[in-house]
Amino acid sequence: MFVLTTLVFPVVLALLCVGAALLVDRVSGGFLPAMLFPAVGAAALIVVSQLSTYVAPLALATPYVFVAVALAGVLLGWGRLRAIAGTWRASPWQLILFPLAYVLALAPVLGAGRPTFSSYMALADSAVHMLGADFLIRHGQDYSQLDLHNSYGAFIHAYYDSSYPSGADTLLGGGARLLGLPSIWAFQPFTAFVLATAIGPAWVLARRVGLERAWGALAALTITLPALVYGYELIGSIKEIVALPLILTLGALVVEHRRWLWRGARGAIPFALTVAAGVGALGVAFGAWALAAALVLATVALIQLASERRGREGAAPAGVDTGSALLRPRSLVALLGLGLLILLVAAWPTWADVSGSVHVAQAIASTSNPGNLHSSLRPSQLFGIWLGGNYKLVPTGLALTLTYVLVAFALALAILGFGNAVRSGWYAFAGWFALMLVLWLVLASYATTWADAKTLMLTSPVVVLMAWAGIAALRASPLRLGAPLLAFLLVGGVCVSDALQYHESNLAPTARYDELSSIDKRFAGRGPALFTDFDEYALYELRDLDVGGPDFAYPAPPLLHASSGYGRPVTLERVSPAALAAYPLIVTRRDPTAVRPPAAYRLLWQGTYYQAWGRRTGARPATVHVALSGLPRARCLALAKRLGGWARDSRVGRLFVALAPQLVNVSTPRLRFIRPPGWARSRSGILMRRPGTLRVAFRLPHTGAWQLWLKGDVMRSLRIAVDGRSLGSLGAQLGGNSLVLNTLSPLTARLSSGPHALTITRPAADLEPGDGGAALLSAILLTPAGPAGEPTLRTVSPTRLRTLCSRSPQWVELVPRQ
């Protein structure tokens, strides 16, 4: 799977994009720069996927439509492809830029060596996009069959049935389904690939300011991967990552307008398709960036028309092929008309409900919810340098000082670059840059924290581009010796910023999600299923079970009272027995402290991380269900007496009691006081911030096989030993929710009764991704291995109910007889 998702998948996407771009190039007159092919091809495929999923019966054919479009492009553009191949052989820089950008963008996943994604514990929106990518290709944009009584249907309805932009999702879903890949593991390679396509327009723009070969390559890479963009790619901000290469492509078409603006109506096709793809991916909000580019082109066209009218230019403008005609009002109208027609058709799924799309854009721009941001981002982050492991937090100490020093250099370079662009007569380039800054300032003035951050990220590459324009100006001046030093500072600042984010990235737990997927396959169609853990990625992994979660953003209505709110612990005792009867399946996390589901359910399957419980055929809901876990003994005895009185008449029903397993708890408060140097106390436990070893003693009541459980979030692998004997290592196991303690997979060992010494070691830092990621230890527990370590269900007579209060009962139920 790792090779398929990280190597085969991007290669297939690249072939599809190049084929689609060849078709666009052919129908538009053959003027597209070759470096724009991946981005323009991706735009064309977004348009295709939006239209094919809009007609729901064609949705499943989307991957094959991709192949058909690409093959048509190769057949019709074979001659152009051969010519481009010959050009690229003479220009190796262009060949290596795309894979190099892809590798850098996907570095955390590649470094982990397993299918995963890096948005974990950062932004759960990626779960929605995985869900949408799968749903839209399987069912199209038809939401009439959704079951709104559970979280799966509620999520799809709340997002995609409300005109939420889905262009990125349909492209992801179509590409992944072509190879039979799960969207969850194709997600990060997809975002890395799409971001890598921005290298093409970045290269074109860098060449426009005079940077070629190695200089152009360095410029293109830093334009594509500045710190803020890299951070958004790592958190899986898929809509913005897909929109970025489209915005840069519009900029490239603006500065290369002489290639197509005078060629007739067909020249508008790439521009219109790029705008339509942007609208599909980002909604009507993309119109702001399209308008900026269109204003520059309109100004250029009007100036040219006025110049020709006055007779000041008797030949085609410089840079236009000798066979092309001068711009005439009639040709300008034809170009505009064809462009608008293509935009209307290609973005029809958005225009069909444009009011809904406008509402979504307004809601995002005006929301007071800052999302995962602690505070507003700073304008200084525009310059691509942020020497901290997290773009959301301000660096401290020396790192902050160095950040602002490097930002000051980048600012000076950008001012120099803009001045040189105006002085050199690059008016289209300078105008596009100026409008991009104006757009950012306007949106920043009216948008709230969340939308402002997105606009800041989308503007950052343009500002870095202008800094490179300043370096190009220095290379052509008497101060050319300073250009390499400033280029080194700019490239070094961006690279170090990205490396720090790589270091602190948190990667999704692959094995746990593979186990969830196996549950989905095993029990597909046997839902609806109740999911008691908080993990919105389960919506994708359990998509065939009509899953509901009471603590999700969109809880199932029957489960509204089963948790204290979004992301908070689930308490099954809060669900009425009648409401619970609607769920044939319950999926729970394996946790030695977890409460067993009601007596009506039996364990169907158990893995390393999860348990699947099935409702017994004909089981009747309990008439009484009383939670006893954690109650004082006196309270337990009082409840037992009352329940015993109800159940003395055998015709009423039977009493069932769930008994907790034997548990040895290494007290968390003690851990806070014996922690190694550099390990800090927190509300939930201890933070293992530095290498070190925790040593703690415990005592076992009897000899036998025991399971050791750790609770917490651990990205960096920990080495575990008892009495100096290694039990193994635990790492890359994250729960993603600070409100619900994550339980790591257990380690098993045969231990004697009596005292033992446990050591937990965090090794020294290395170059693995996530070395600076989550490292929280909340609790240490031991249970007997096997059935003795699981809750026990007992049928008990009313007279013996009181005797169980000393045996850690979890709950008692009164179940009517059949």
Describe the structure.
- The protein is an alpha+beta fold.
- It has 3 domains: 502 residues, no CATH class; 68 residues; 106 residues, Galactose-binding domain-like (Jelly Rolls, Sandwich).
- It is 49% helix and 13% strand.
- The protein has 28 helices and 19 strands.
- Strands 8, 9, 10, 12, 15 and 17 form a 6-stranded antiparallel beta sheet that branches.
- Helix 16 runs antiparallel to helix 21.
- It is globular.
Descriptive labels:
49% helix, alpha+beta, 3 domains, five-stranded mixed β-sheet, 28 helices, 818 residues, six-stranded antiparallel β-sheet, Jelly Rolls
Number of helices: 28
Instruction: Report the strand count.
Output: 19
Query: How many angstroms separate the termini?
Result: 49 Å
Q: Spans of 5+ residues with little confidence (pLDDT < 50)?
A: 313-325
- Strand content is 5-15%
Note the main sheet: 6 strands, antiparallel
Helix content: 40-55%
Mean pLDDT: 87
Total discrete domains = 3
Question: Based on helices, strands and strand pairing, what is the structural class?
Answer: alpha+beta
Question: What's the Cα radius of gyration?
Answer: 30 Å
- Note the overall shape: globular
Quick gist of this model?
With 818 residues, the chain is α+β, with helices and mostly antiparallel strands.
Describe the protein's topology.
Elements: H1 2-28, H2 37-54, H3 62-76, H4 78-89, H5 92-105, H6 107-112, H7 125-139, H8 151-159, H9 167-178, H10 183-196, H11 199-208, H12 213-224, H13 227-234, H14 238-255, H15 269-282, H16 287-309, H17 329-346, H18 348-351, H19 354-366, H20 397-423, H21 427-446, H22 449-475, H23 482-503, H24 510-523, E1 529-531, H25 538-541, E2 547-548, H26 577-580, E3 585-589, E4 601-606, E5 610-615, E6 624-627, H27 633-647, E7 654-659, E8 664-666, H28 668-673, E9 679-682, E10 685-688, E11 692-700, E12 704-714, E13 718-722, E14 725-730, E15 747-751, E16 754-762, E17 775-784, E18 792-796, E19 809-815
Parallel strand pairs: 1-2, 1-3
Antiparallel strand pairs: 3-5, 4-5, 6-19, 7-18, 7-19, 8-17, 9-10, 10-17, 11-16, 12-15, 12-17, 13-14, 13-16
Helix pairs in contact: 1-2, 1-3, 1-10, 2-3, 2-9, 2-15, 3-9, 5-10, 5-12, 7-9, 9-10, 10-14, 11-12, 11-14, 12-22, 13-23, 14-15, 14-16, 14-22, 15-17, 16-21, 20-22, 20-23, 21-22, 22-23
